[in-house]
Amino acid sequence: MSDILKVAAGAAKEAGDFLLHNFGKISKIERKKDKSLATNLDKEAESLIVKRIKASFKGHGIIGEEGASSNLDSDYLWIVDPLDGTHNFVRGINIFGVSIGVIYKGSFCAGAIYMPQEKELYLGEEGSGAFKNGKKITVSQTKKLSECSVSFDSSIRYSPRLMLNALGRLAPEVFNVRMMGSSVRQLSWVAEGKLDLAVEYYDKPWDFAGGMAIIKAGGGKFVNIQNKPLTYKDIGYIVANPYIFEDIKKIIFKS
Fold first, then answer.
1. Are 115 and 184 in contact (CB under 8 A)?
2. Which one, of 209, 205, 190, 192, lies nearest residue 248 by Cα?
3. Rounded to two decimals, what is the model's pTM?
4. Which ranges constitute the DSSP H helices of the chain?
């Protein structure tokens, strides 16, 4: 394991254990302009992660969902979501986790996701593979759409016509559709093959950077929601195992 991945793993676990210890102990909730929520614990968890990164890699860039921003012109860029699934967390639903992605010269090169409730640590690194609690994982081998389990964007309120039309095309072709309310949960399940694909229209870089690095290392494929190569600057994506990837794109991008 590289030093980068060791730091990412340690930071994700520290922040995740902090969140679990404070589950149900929120003292402040803020509503952002996009109607999403942030708590005092999001910000405290981000501070823990950023402190570890800066202590180990002083020149690396950092982007955090809760405002951390430094050295953005560095070849290495850490993209941090200290609490993914905040709405679940606020409502006492224990589907939440921590995501840390590392971008090297624009490429998703390493990622860590930690699900503290389940004590599941997912790691992935370009050239080394993907792992869950030290055991190697890969995306699913499902080849028939009719056998696929799908995670679909829960934020339908933002673009109901567009998203419901896409869901209407997709649902009859697959086995079932889930809405997790947590990108780390759906992306970690895609990474280990419990889900075959995920479709998101409004996920931001901190939501998916860690997960995409892990999925990439485990053999998955992805594009942005405009059917172009996904970058850390994009919003929205489709990610799937390689066997159904082209079929899913035809359904979602049908004019």
1. yes
2. 190
3. 0.95
4. 3-21, 40-56, 86-90, 160-170, 183-191, 205-217, 245-252
**Token digits for 142?**
């499902």
Kindly give the residue spans of alpha helices, DSSP state H, lying in 27-150: 40-56, 86-90
Looking at the structure of the chain, the number of domains it has is 2
Helices (H), 69-138: 86-90
Residue located via tokens 């998203």: 163
Q: In 3-state terms, what secondary structure has residue 230?
A: coil
As given in the structure block, the two tokens for residue 207 are 């939501």
pLDDT tens digits for range 136-176: 999 999 999 999 999 999 999 999 999 999 999 999 999 99
Task: Of 207, 141, 206, give the one whose Cα is nearest residue 180.
Answer: 207
Same domain, 49 and 132: yes
Produce one character per residue of 182-219: b if its CB has 16 or more CB atoms within 10 Å, e if not: bbbbbbbbbbbbebbbbbbbbbbbbbbbbbbbbbbbbb
Residues 133, 156: Cα–Cα separation, whole Å:
33
Distance CA 244, CA 40 (A): 41
Q: What's the pLDDT tens digit per position in 27-49?
A: 777 777 766 767 888 899 999 99
Check which CATH number belongs to the domain holding 105 and give it: 3.30.540.10
Domain that holds residue 105: 3-137
Continuous H helices in 74-182: 86-90, 160-170
Q: Residue 111 and residue 102: Cα distance in Å, rounded?
A: 6
